[in-house]
Amino acid sequence: MSKRLWLVLSLGALAMASVALAQDSGVRSVIGNVFLQNTTPGTVQAGHASIGGTFRAGQIHVSQSTASTIPVIGNNTAVGAGSAMGGSFSSSQQSGTGVRGTAAATVGRTFGVYGETRSPSGAGVYGKSTSTSNGADFAAGVFGESSTSTIAGVYGYNPFGTAVVSRTDGGSTGLLALNNNANGQAIYAAGPTGIYAQGGGGQFDYGVEGRGANGGNFQVQNNTGGTACRGANNQAVSSGYGVYGRHFDSDGYAVFAEGKTGATGTKSFVIDHPLDPTNKTLSHYCTEGPEPLNVYRGRTVTDGRGQAWVTLPDYFDEINIDPTVQLTVSDPSDDFVMAKVAQEVVGRKFLIRTSKPGVRVFWRVEARRNDRWVQRYGAPVEAKKPESVQGTYLRPELYGKPQTMSEDARRFPVKTQGSPRP
User: How many Cβ atoms from other residues are within 10 Å of residue 320's Cβ?
Assistant: First the structure.
């Protein structure tokens, strides 16, 4: 037999053996190779596929029934600086999804998509929107949605620090919250400190700024004995504000209190100084007293008999008790003119009498406030401090004490705040 003929016969035998191997699943499983099949769904094969180039398929289905293995693993072993990816998925449809994860179990703490990072500068899950226009309210780098009112669309948890950080380097909003339900809240916060916000270092920077559109409001609530909303400015700058409110309509209230108000300092109005409005301010201060008073004043001229009746507003008796009247005579003559209250306030009226007719008299009535609020809640002058702040001062520096002995320090102890990213 010639060498050429022997070579041809050997190659033919090898080809027949290869075909037989491809058709024999028993031999195939022993060797450990995985072969592509034309049948659907095909025969389960045991083995490994090692591809050094590009692998393309119309659909890949991987199924696993053991909890100790991961059906699909993407691994890029590149090290050092760079942006290597372990896997990449994409969709070109208008409502398509690049990656979709589903946790099918109906109980337990499951995750549809789980991301983890081991770098102190990394992020477990990163989402990015490269669109330059906003086509919908939910356009975002990362979007979370819930199908029930008792489950959050997005939930952040950190047992040691900040759970969620929001940041923007542009002139827009770091955190935007919207609620299209008239009875809902855009932001709801609960905890020892419901919301902690720190503004920038500028005079006109704000820790929290709330604006109501079309009658909306900024609202914070707290449990019994707590503080619903606190504003503090710890900078030694006299032009700063702890809380600043502004209303652009002259009929509106920049700050309105539904209840009592209090202040450890003076109460005043502050306006631009009328003689130097761009460089100075002018302050006038409230009169203080141990009882709430209402004041009414005016002027009158006595008649030919030296008498003048004064009528007070029609609501006077509804909100006042214990009125007193003061009189001041204005008379250019050399006569010594006397004036007196001939009849005290009765039925909103009182009578003035002078020693001669035609005398101008300035009058002032002070009465203790007695509207329904005061009738129900009173106007206490001396009161015990709550037990939680006994042993502290409202303003300890006035007594030579440190700020650590202030009521504010007791109510709002310094907490370890999470460190937002720079």
Answer: 22
